[in-house]
Amino acid sequence: MSQPPDSQAPLSWRRRYRAAKTNPSRSQDDVVDQQLDHSPVAGEVDDVPYDQTLAPEDGGVSDHHPADPYDHLDPVDDLLVGHHDDFHDPEDDHEDDHGRRRRSPFVRWGSIVAALTVVVVGGYFALQVVTGLIPSFQRSDDTIADYPGPGGSEVAIEVPEGAGGGQIAEILADNDVVASSAAFAAAAAVNSDSVSIQPGSYSMLEQMSAEQALDRMLDPEFRNVNGVTVREGLWKAEVFELLADQTDNEVADYEAVDPADLDLPAAAGGEMEGYLFPDTYAFGPDDTPVEQLRQMVDLGKQKYADLGLEGDALNEAIIKGSLIQAEGAFSDDLPKIAQVIDNRLAEDQPLGFDSTVHFIFQERGRAGTTDKQRDSDSPYNTYKVVGLPPGPIDSPGTAAIEAAMNPADGPWLYFVTTNPSTGETKFAVTFKEHNENVAEFQRWCADNPDDC
């Protein structure tokens, strides 16, 4: 005769034992089939199968293990059977009609409520953690406002330099192109091409769907760009002429701009010369001369900050950089020219740069200068005045500024562009070597009299 199983036996075997005791004539298989037919639905009590057992080799009970006399507990109580022996209070027990002790229903249901509370509260806080990691673009009513499209009246919107996706979405929403910034952000999030949106002016329609608005901004046909390339080494007057030529403004409009409206760096001393940073700009069709020049100044300040320049160091770097930019044709020559400047300043020698004389007379097109020009009393005449000129003579680019900050190591005191057609420049340590290089330049001038 088999013994009742202990309290650690699987629940299924305890049920089989109880059924066999109640009706010995029925087979265990019949009992099990009936139990399966009336077992709780998954999720009503627990998702763990009631007949899950462990193999003997895993420390479990074999399929031939006898049933359990404690299987009188209801299914919910069975879930808590592991707690019965560990947390037993005699006062909570009472005997049934057969003399067996039963757990008080108050204790049993109290345990169930406590367990469910842990699950609910734990689930709530877990949900808060997860949702806190996901940016929400939804309104309070859990919907994202979006127009059905296709849109109405045409409207021009401006994407400023450096604008991110969130700012672009807000600009579109503020101009009623899209119903909400969240709708455009959601559309952009699933389109990898959205990162290619460029600054500039776009022809959009009012009340478009977010997806249609994004497609339109990615289509070059609807981007209105006044792309103006301002090259390195231009004088302020040349920048004005270039801007006027490529916009609807006049040179006089730029000349009338008050430098105080441009938020120039303190090192500029209230002068634009040298601080209109060379680059390609996407001006909007309605940008005023003040706004265009301010974009150039702002970009320059950003570049200077990246280089760690400010105050007197910035002023010196821009002045030297403007000289280097004007005299050098190739990037490899720029640090050498910077070193010539430093070596001459250390020797208290005039720099003798033709570029400063060209700046005085605002003349281009000639490689050299005349005796009369070199006799000018201007403080920018580096043939007569020792030291740096009082200000920059053009707008230097990043390479020239970096060369001024990091000159090449060398003893050169002279240099000359021996072939202005190709930009070939030769450096010399002694005056004799320099004269030989100057003779080469003069031969070039003899062959090109209109350019000297």
Annotate the secondary structure layout:
Layout: H1 11-22, H2 28-37, H3 75-79, E1 93-95, E2 101-103, H4 105-132, E3 154-159, H5 165-174, H6 181-189, E4 200-205, H7 210-217, E5 223-224, E6 226-229, H8 236-246, H9 251-255, E7 280-283, H10 289-306, H11 311-327, H12 334-346, H13 354-361, H14 371-374, H15 398-405, E8 414-419, E9 424-428, H16 431-447
Helix pairs in contact: 1-2, 5-6, 6-7, 11-12, 11-15, 12-15
Quick structural summary:
The protein is mainly alpha-helical and about 450 residues long. The protein is about 40% helix and about 10% strand. The strands form 4 sheets. It has a 3-stranded antiparallel sheet with strand order 3-4-5, with helices on one face. The chain has a two-stranded antiparallel sheet with strand order 1-2.
- Oligomeric category: single chain
In order across it, which strands form the biggest sheet?
3-4-5
Helix percent band:
40-55%
What is the molecular shape? elongated
Q: What would you say this structure looks like, in words?
A:
With 452 residues, this protein is mostly helical. The protein is built from 16 helices and 9 strands. The protein has helices spanning 11-22, 28-37, 75-79, 105-132, 165-174, 181-189, 210-217, 236-246, 251-255, 289-306, 311-327, 334-346, 354-361, 371-374, 398-405, 431-447, and strands at 93-95, 101-103, 154-159, 200-205, 223-224, 226-229, 280-283, 414-419, 424-428. The strands form 4 sheets. The chain has a 3-stranded antiparallel beta sheet with strand order 3-4-5, with helices on one face. Helix 5 packs across helix 6. It is elongated, with a radius of gyration of 43 Å. Mean pLDDT is 77; it is low at 1-14, 16-22, 24-95 and 115-141.
